Structure formats: C-alpha cells, structure tokens
Amino acid sequence: MRARLRAVGARTQAQLETADLDLTHELPVAPWFEEGARWSVRHVALHILAEISQHAGHADIIREAIDGQHTMG
C-alpha cells in the first residue's frame, strides 16, 4: 500500500509540474456547487491536499484512541 501511495504521489507531482494551474473546468450540476461554478487546477490540487490532510487527521485520532500515543505534544 505504501508503494502504491508513493507511485500515485510521483505521478501526481509529475502532472502538477507541467499543468496550467490557472486552467479552469466547469463543475457538474450538484446541490453543493453554485450554478456555473468553475474550479482551477490549482483549486482542485489544494482541495485534494486538504481532504487528504483531514482524513489523515481522522486516522490519527483513531490511532491515538487505540494506542494512547500522541504525535503532537
């Protein structure tokens, strides 16, 4: 699983290094998006980073509850 994560990270980095971060794409019609909303590649990349960070935090909370170890302080 770690190897897979590293491989996906490497591919993502390679794509972001050459991407036009200002390029935008219209979002699909959905109740959680404003009508006609557009996100840039930059916005999508930051959104994915925030989501991964949030879920890693959730996993850390669960791990701390199980083993009692704290990674921050």
Describe what this molecule looks like in 3D.
This is DinB-like domain-containing protein. It comes from Kineosphaera limosa NBRC 100340. InterPro entries: DinB/YfiT-like (IPR034660), MST-like (IPR007061). The protein has 73 residues and is mainly alpha-helical. It has one domain (2-67). The chain has two helices and two strands, in the order αββα. Strands 1-2 form a two-stranded antiparallel ribbon. The model has no long low-confidence stretch (mean pLDDT 89).
SSE arrangement:
Layout: H1 2-18, E1 24-26, E2 38-40, H2 41-67
Antiparallel strand pairs: 1-2
Protein name: DinB-like domain-containing protein
InterPro entries: DinB/YfiT-like, MST-like
Organism: Kineosphaera limosa NBRC 100340
Rg, rounded, reads: 17 Å
Instruction: List low-confidence stretches.
Output: none
Which sequence of SSEs, written as H and E, runs from N to C? HEEH
* Helix proportion: 55-70%
Quote the beta fraction.
5-15%
Average pLDDT value?
89
Count of DSSP-assigned helices: 2
Query: Number of DSSP strands?
Result: 2
SSE-based structural type? mainly alpha
Largest beta-sheet details: 2 strands, antiparallel
Query: First CA to last CA: what distance?
Result: 28 Å
Major sheet strand order: 1-2
Tell me the domain tally: 1
| Overall 3D form | flat
Organism: Kineosphaera limosa NBRC 100340
Protein name: DinB-like domain-containing protein
InterPro entries: DinB/YfiT-like, MST-like
